[in-house]
Amino acid sequence: MPAPPASRAPCLRIADFVPPGAHWHLVRQVRSAAGSVERHGHDFPEAFWVEAGELAHGVNRASVRLGPGDLVLIRPGDEHALTWRGRVVWVNLAFPAEVLDELRGRYFPDTGWPWAGGGLPATARLDREALHRLSARAERLSGTVPRTRLALDRFLICLLDDLATSSAPLPWDDLPPWMAEGLRRWRESPDARLEGVAALSRLTGRSREHLNRTARAAVGLTTTGLLNHLRLEQAAADLRMTGKAPAEIAYDCGLPNLGHFYKLFRRRFGHPPARYRTRQRAIQGGLGEDTHAGDHGKHRANGAPFAVRAVRRRAP
Prior knowledge:
Blueprint: E1 11-12, E2 25-31, E3 35-42, E4 46-52, E5 55-59, E6 62-66, E7 70-74, E8 79-84, E9 88-94, H1 97-107, E10 122-125, H2 128-142, H3 149-166, H4 177-188, H5 190-195, H6 197-204, H7 208-219, H8 223-241, H9 246-253, H10 258-269, H11 273-281, E11 298-301, E12 304-307
Parallel strand pairs: 1-3
Antiparallel strand pairs: 2-9, 3-8, 4-7, 4-9, 5-6, 5-8, 7-10, 11-12
Helix pairs in contact: 2-3, 4-6, 8-9
């Protein structure tokens, strides 16, 4: 939960928006001229996303610029305000806090809860397709009469599933929230992946030196090493799941120098990309080679090597 702010803003209450027997409040805000929504808190969670235009989001003593595709998951206790200078369209969904508690307990009892965040509420940048899908689901929800819990759960489960699966969690727990969010945005932008550290510096508003100190303290890597880790994870996934050529994959993950890409990939996974793909596709019926490993049947899990024992079927 967010820390209590120094001064209390007006608190909105779910009972003022959701009548008895209903389970949510959903509205699309369309503003054509400059304006603002004053700072306020509420006793309920809220999801809102920008469909067009730009917003300045003041939340828990911070200010964040939001544009089309930005989704924000507000928690009870967060205080926020909005300002805009021109035409802007956003959608708000509010619902009782116990709904969120039940979904977390059912589907995210241990880790990976998308609505968590730290001092700031969790945010996500949706691509055009994901934004269209979310808005279409909202239209369907809006047309549901009566406003049943089943319809709300369906909407939220689809949203949570998209967030949990489309943006794989970062493999480290010690990154500060501002850096984790910057890395997520960096991974979602092809131009940022090619630009590298300079793009991450711009996305986080921190200097290269600050990024390096933070990365070393949190994960023991330089910022470049951290970005290359994420690039290679994407490359490995593309090799397993697509038919793209290694050169195309190298470019897409932000390593257009093919020789450098091959060197990093082999160092990380123990094989050059083509061999890695071949070994992955050799797995049949649950049996095969473990190819996240290097040579000689060794595999690293969380940095610790262990032997991989071959399993053979007996001939019938």
